[in-house]
């Protein structure tokens, strides 16, 4: 039985955009595992098997695992003879730090920049859910939340200086080769690439160069979904 990956999509089932789902996509390719995807809209997430209420969800035979990091740990334990996602126990703990940093530094900015673009790419029923849930949480309309977004790009790029310095000295966060830490950060930028046409990473930036390398990994898995027009 093929591995199944439930991943978040909008009105186009061929355009998954969740950063967490992209982490797992590349992790599966890193391990050399075949899988099939199951597209799920926002309003379909509560109905995914296992009842976790989140994506991604992975089914491997009789095993169902939710949460991207838990899935990576499952793949590492279940397929130890395939290339390692962490490069050892220390790498697993460092990946936890990278995930925490990414979700506190990159995700809030990407979410604010692409909020209306994500909404516009959803089916009407999901648009209603997305607008109501986000506007209730943030206390503003989606339109107000994205207003002046271009002015947020430069300060965001400054926040990324530690990442830029590292990637100016080595090809990947994992060193000469990518590890799950790379897929964590890649997922955040792929979320932006797939969801919004707003330019953020300037050409020649070491982060932009790294992102291009990540898009080419595993037969160009990241490029299978085109950038937002």
From TrEMBL:
Gene3D superfamilies: 1.20.1050.10, Glutaredoxin. The keyword S-adenosyl-L-methionine does not apply. GO terms for biological process: glutathione metabolic process; L-phenylalanine catabolic process. Residues 8-83 form the GST N-terminal domain. It comes from Aurantimonas aggregata. GO terms for molecular function: glutathione transferase activity; maleylacetoacetate isomerase activity. Transmembrane segments: none annotated. This is Glutathione S-transferase family protein. It holds the Pfam family GST_N_2. Keywords: Transferase.
